[in-house]
Amino acid sequence: MTDEEKGDFVKMGDPNMAESKGKNSKLILAVLGALLVLVAISIIIVIIFNKDQPETKEDKEANSWDDSYKKADEFISKLNLTERISLLYGTENMKYLFPPTLKDESERKHLCVGKIDPLKNDNVDFKGMCIQDGPAGVRYANGTGMSWHAPINTAATFNRKLMYEVGKAQGEENKEKGINTILSPSVNIMRTPQAGRTWEGFGEDPFYSGVCAAEVIKGIQDYGVIATIKHFVGNDQETYRHSSSSNIDKNALMDIYVEPFYRPIHEAKVGAVMAAFNAVNNTYCSENKILLTDILRGILDFKGFVMSDWWSVYSNHSDTFNSGLDVNMPGGRFCGPFDVEHMYDNVGRDHSHWSALEDYVKNKIVEEKRVNDSAKRIIASMYQMDQMEKFPEVDLYRDTITEERKNLQRKVATESQVLLKNDGILPLKSIKKIAVVGNDAMERDCGIEGELDCKNDTNLVVNGNVPLGYGSGTTKFSYLVTPLQGIKELAEKNNISVTSSGKLIYTDEKRGDKIVHVSAVEDIETGVEVSKDADVVIVFGKATSGEEYDVVENTVGDRLDLDLWHGANELIENITEVNKNVIVVINAPPVVNLPWLNKVRAILFSGFPGAETGHAIADILFGVVNPSGHLPFTWAELDQYCTKLNSLGNLTVIDEKTGKIWRDEYRYDGVDSAGLKDDRENHEIEQYNYTEGLFVGQRWFNKYNKKYIFPFGYGLTYSSFNYSDLKVSMSKEGLKAEFNVKNTSPNLGQAVPMMFLTFPDNIGDYPEHIFKGFDKVELKPDETKKVTILADDHALSYFNVSKNKYTRINEGIIKVYIAENGNMSETKLMAEINANYM
User: What is the pLDDT of residue 26?
Assistant: First the structure.
């Protein structure tokens, strides 16, 4: 029977064939029905077991920015001009967090440090956006959240996996509290160790800062919270941050100060950028079109939204709106630091510079498209994180402290401890008595309040351990394991007795009808006495720094010197006279003076390790954990850095109403010149000239043979490692270095091999031995592992000013160095390779 005949036969309705067809159809329908049931069950199971799981990488890639922008475009089409503009400025809630405007607890727990207000009309129901600090935990959470370590400690781990895990845990915690956008991380470069917020960043190196930030951001955003990378750009000191210009040439601007933003934008797809307080080249960052439009959205191809730092929109000139800024935070004007009762009176939309925006649009001074673009960026970022339809309600007081997060915080804090010196005294063993000396080892005598400062009428006195710096990057601690507690725990297990001394002696002064503390020093006499008969003395010293809006022991953000506080250097010197087994532990921002360096047997730089400070320090001292932290900055005396803060006098101003002391004259090297004006009458903007160009950090020390105490990347361990068999290759993807690392000690340890490159001379006066790759490898005793480090396409590029773009090096010889730190005289392996990859 032909095919045509078969067709005709069926049409004619042969009963046998019809019956057969009916049976087959029923069977097929039955099978299909069963399959549909199985599919439905599978979907239900997936929903049940994955409803709280973070979005996978594949899901994230599917939910591209293009898709998010399409959704955002549809959303804003349902809003009128007034409603669209309402998305572009915040409502400041911090006024309700301070006396005398405090609200009751039930209201305060819903107040974020900044927010975009809810919006509802016949077509949309927008819940708004909660924006909250910060990098070391949720601010103003009233002790209900984790108090993490400082970001500089995250950097000191040199462990990408831990960086991601910290970001993920913080993303989870913020989402549980209903926070849409976290104001973290900061990637401003440590140009000088005096800068008040060095502990909030990742150190001095632009490549490494970008890597750290990208890993943290991936973690945060994989759990559906928008990360904010800040401060764009050149906010490298606190002094006159509202009235200064960072003057930077294009080479240095792109390869040093913009560079840390590159990987977070391209690899981590960060959702928000915060513009800095200061000006760059005499145009304030929040109204700097070159920065926000030409560089950020043009060269870097940033897809998210840009917000101002708090009160850093200084005018309502139309240029401000046309620069590329999307959100004016916090939507009002700052009145001044002293009058708390009225300092936030000018908040809200009516007092915002953005209040003129609607008139500008109606009068054709600002294009409506500009408003639409900004509104879309904000909403697209929320769609990108899947926040628009279902997101937890804001409850900053929701308890998010878990044992899992405590364990992670302890692990990172411990792995961030940097052993700077050890003549064999560590790890502690075969001892009977330890003396723990220094106020930094002790509990705080006023509890753990607010931003970690014990307050009185004229000063903020730091009494007790300092686990974080001060300012918006810190938290209210629910608990703090002090160094003394941590040491006692392990000493007790090892039948070691512990004696201690850590009292501060105050100098008091009568102000009006009150007695206040005006200074404090360590109790040296008692400290020396308890040290005399101890087998080992562990001396703790501290310093702190933070934002310029608060004064802590006469320090307005930036440190005026690098000494340990409260006379701790004198305490250490005196103790070395009565006991030769002295170990010094330092809780401080990056870099302090070490006048007693050659008189002590060991030094541990602890940084700001957060809530688990005591456990982290004790685990290293007793050898429970082998130290593997490394410095993400160069350690030197102040006059060796490319810039330093110069005190121009010792004048102080005491505000008669509050008694607060502010230093009147101090600044970075630079000269007054005509230019921008700030709000202070007859005060010209400070000019900070970045004359060092590309040579910052270790690059500066290498270029000019400056003397350092410890190089970038330095860190001792209880293990030793051997490096061998280096092979390098070049491809379109980048430069690949492969080599072996062997643990030659009897201890389990973690090696941190680092790759430094010197580019060919044909690109001009470029730094040598630039940091471009690293890994962290755990090795058992006598174990060997193969390590591969890739310097990718961007790592092999520099910013070509003449072409106004990043350019891959493709000719000449690249020198490759494998080392354990930035001291090239201790390089482990070397090679050369032609840059041509075609």
Answer: 53
Distance CA 326, CA 296 (A): 13
Mark residue 311 as left, alpha or beta (left: phi above 0; alpha: psi -120 to 50; beta: remaining): left
- Residue range 365-385, pLDDT digits in tens: 999 999 999 999 999 999 999
Q: Which residues pair with 755 in a beta bridge?
A: 773, 818
* The amino acid at 53: Q
Q: Which of 458-467, 662-671, 703-712 has the lowest mean pLDDT?
A: 662-671
- Structure token digits, residue 542: 């501290």
3-state helix, strand, coil in the chain (%, to 5): 30, 20, 45
As beta bridge partners, residue 461 has: 454
Please name the residue ranges forming H helices in 94-139.
105-108
CB 584 within 8 A of CB 531: no
Among candidate residues 553, 624, 450, 473, the one with its CA nearest the CA of residue 152: 473
The distance from CA 629 to its chain's CA centroid, rounded to whole angstroms, is: 17
Instruction: Decide if 184 contacts 213 (C-beta within 8 A).
Output: no
Per-residue b/e over 455-466, b at no fewer than 16 CB within 10 Å? ebebbbbbbbbb
pLDDT in tens, 624-674: 999 999 999 999 999 999 998 764 344 344 454 455 444 444 444 443 333
* Contact (Cβ atoms closer than 8 angstroms) between residue 209 and residue 203: yes
Is residue 766 within 8 Å of residue 759, measured between CB atoms? yes
Cα distance between residue 687 and residue 676, in whole Å: 10
Which domains are delineated in the chain? 65-141+177-384 (3.20.20.300), 403-633 (3.40.50.1700), 716-834 (2.60.40.10)
CA atoms of 827 and 758, how far apart (whole Å): 13
- Say how far apart CA 708 and CA 730 lie, in whole Å: 33
DSSP state of 42: H
Pairing of strands 797-800, 181-182: unpaired
SS3 (DSSP) at 269: coil
CA 108 to chain centre: 26
Q: Please tell me the total number of residues recorded for the chain in this structure.
A: 838
Scan for tokens 């000088």, then name that residue. Answer: 192
- The answer to whether 87 and 344 have CB atoms below 8 angstroms apart is no
Q: Can you tell me the distance from the alpha carbon of 780 to that of 100, in angstroms, rounded to the nearest whole number?
A: 59
Task: Give 466-512 as a DSSP string.
Answer: --S-BSTT----S----HHHHHHHHHHHTT-EEEEE--EEEEEEEET
Span 416-457, pLDDT tens digits: 999 999 999 999 999 999 999 999 999 976 543 344 444 433
Query: Which residues neighbour 205 within 8 Å (Cβ) at sequence distance 6 or greater?
Result: 632, 633, 697, 698, 712, 771
Q: At 86, is the pLDDT very low, low, confident or very high (cuts 50, 70, 90)?
A: very high
Rounded to whole angstroms, how far apart are CA atoms 369 and 577?
72
Q: Tell how strand 602-605 and strand 582-587 pair up.
A: parallel
Whether the pLDDT of residue 487 is over 90: the answer is yes
From CA 478, how far away is CA 480, in angstroms rounded?
7
Which residue pairs from 478-482 have beta carbons closer than 8 angstroms and sit at least 24 positions apart in sequence? 478/143, 478/144, 478/145, 478/147, 478/401, 478/611, 479/611, 480/147, 480/443, 480/444, 480/448, 480/611, 480/613, 480/614, 481/611, 481/612, 481/613, 481/614, 481/615, 482/441, 482/442, 482/443, 482/613, 482/614
**Who wins on pLDDT, 657 or 619?**
619
pLDDT tens, 727-775? 999 999 999 999 999 999 999 999 999 999 999 999 999 999 999 999 9
The DSSP result for 399-455, as a single string, is ----HHHHHHHHHHHHHT-EEEEESS--S--S-SEEEEESGGGSPPTT-S-TTT-EE
Give per-residue burial for 318-347: e unless 16+ CB within 10 Å, then b. eebbbbbbbbbbbbbbbbeeeeeeebbeeb
469-491: burial string, b at 16+ Cβ within 10 Å, e else: bbbbbbbbbbebbbbbbbbbebb
Identify which of 186-195, 460-469, 655-664 has the greatest average pLDDT: 186-195
> Are the C-beta atoms of residues 153 and 468 closer than 8 Å to each other?
no
